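Q: Please design a sequence for this.
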């Protein structure tokens, strides 16, 4: 199970931190990612982190977002800085290993003045 939290309303230029609590599977052995979906748009892979330390970001968030994981607390975090209205979306956490794939319920991030 994946439980995302931390979404909310933030002004442009602001920061927000979203978290994903994992349970029921061996968190440390899964690659984790954040995927977002804006209204009327397709899902977009925002950031990913392997079960090691390798990370990757979409060009749209590179330099502004930071993904991290705590394999002891079974938690995935996305720190988002310098937010813009284009970052408005529902953010989902995803766990993947082989053909196993889990999704959280999503948390809404709204960037607006």
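A: Design:
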């Amino acid at each position: 199970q994946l439980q995302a939290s931390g979404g909310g309303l933030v002004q442009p230029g602001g920061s927000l931190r979203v978290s994903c609590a994992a349970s029921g599977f061996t968190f440390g052995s899964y690659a984790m990612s954040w995927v977002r979906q804006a209204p009327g748009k397709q899902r977009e892979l925002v950031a990913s982190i392997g079960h090691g330390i390798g990370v990757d970001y979409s060009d749209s968030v590179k330099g502004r977002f930071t993904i991290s994981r705590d394999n002891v607390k079974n938690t995935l975090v996305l720190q988002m800085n310098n937010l813009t209205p284009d970052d408005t979306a529902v953010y989902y956490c995803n766990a993947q290993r082989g053909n196993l794939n889990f999704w959280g319920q999503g948390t809404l991030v709204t960037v607006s003045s």
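Q: Thanks. Anything notable?
A: The CA atoms of residues 31 and 50 lie 4 Å apart. The two ends are 34 Å apart (CA to CA).
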